Amino acid sequence: MRTHKLKIPYSEQLERLNASSASVWGECLSLKNSWDYAHGYSTGGSLDYECELWMDKQLSKPQPLHSQSIQHVRWRFFKNRKSFRELRKNGDKRAKPPYREKAFQTTTWKKQAIRFRNDLLGKKLSLSNGRGNKPLVVSLPKEFDIKYAESHIALVELVYDKGQYCLHFVYNVVKPVKSKLEGIVGVDIGEIHPMVSHDGVITNLFNGRYIRSLYRLRNKVIASFGKKIDRCERHSQRWWHLVKRKWKRIKKIDNQIMDGLHKHTTKLVKLCELRGIGTIVLGDLTGIRENINYGKRANQKLHQWAFGKITQLITYKANALGIKVEVIDESYTSQTCPHCVNRKKPTNRNYACKCGFTYHRDGVGAINIRQKYLGCLGVPVAAAMAPPVGIRLEGRCCSA
Ligand SMILES: [Zn+2]
To answer: Would you say the pTM of this structure is higher than 0.90?
Structure first.
């Protein structure tokens, strides 16, 4: 499964659709209650199946939704109950079955209800809401790949998230055949450079200036709002106003950071595919080696968050192409000289060994992570090292 998101502008129709889905949910709740009343209250799972069949036959209030969209809500209701039972079984006493009425809920369309169009007016998506009801028609961006969508689409969901309506396109993805490629690339994830990769020949430095500037901006926003918020009375009107504005700002910056991480990781994985890499080796990030300027705890948290995200992004993007991702313990990988295997802590951005070997410090990390994976950390690397090639985020500038 793969999900693609598309923001769409607000309209009353969207709100009505998700309200209708919520009322189907409410109907499930009340039907379940009457079923329980008739069959005795039980949280056991065996009755749920019968209840679902029974519910299916009940006449539902007419809803402006496709029959499969209605079915999907019911399915989700029982899936929720199932996961509640599993939580209880595993000792979570606070787990509750679905019990609350909702005002809005995600609407789901299945394949039969989804139509793509490409005509003079541009690319369009039409989502059927059953006979006699107005379908939801959405304009798609120019670059939208209709051919791919038509052959792979499984579901379309209308999701409301923090003031924004989004369509989630869920695609069926055929698992790619495991690649038989031999190449191995070591990747060092750091603070100055979010990623540095080495594949035995080429070292790539992924520039981190843009992302770092966003970190700084984020800290600045937190600090300046913090001062203002502290001056207000807690929970006062102005306090709420400032808190809301602060989080809106931060959310935007976080999105920009995410965008940068996405671009870098996509580029890395694409380069790997191009160069016939079969395995990407990442250093284990649980113990962070060197602190550059953690200064504040907030800073550190942010770094760790980005580390985790980079690992996650590389993993799923590589796996989608059939490239294996391995995580290894990265101790000593930043200190060992690739030429003479001496250990020495680098003191600045350049690693300089007494044997005369000098190289970019993070590049050394990537080389050694690769060596370690091969079981060769401690074996001198014979090949001469080409200077690292930088990769920058394109078409971006940051306003601080
Ligand atoms: Zn050396």
So the answer is: no
